[in-house]
Amino acid sequence: MQVKPVDRIGRPLGERGYDTKRSLLLALDWELEVTPWRALTVQQVAKRSGKKVGVFYQYFYSIEDAVLELADAVLEDDDILSDRMKAILHLIALGRE
Fold this sequence. Notes:
This protein is mainly α. It has 5 helices and no strands.
């Protein structure tokens, strides 16, 4: 999975920061398999990744922000979004209107 090499405000990440952000996105991906995204919490993602909640917020503003970045990472890897991810992105877009 390709991860944007910047934190939430655009500062470049070192190798450790990149690995941390990637582990958060992998945990998010796993949690989305078992939890609807609207019910998902930062605490669940942090726990799954083995990181503290504050660490999540160093890389993402919200669950929505992380889901959108996960979608970008999926696009970079496969050039095809799964039906599940398309549905999630559609719901996010509807919620922002």
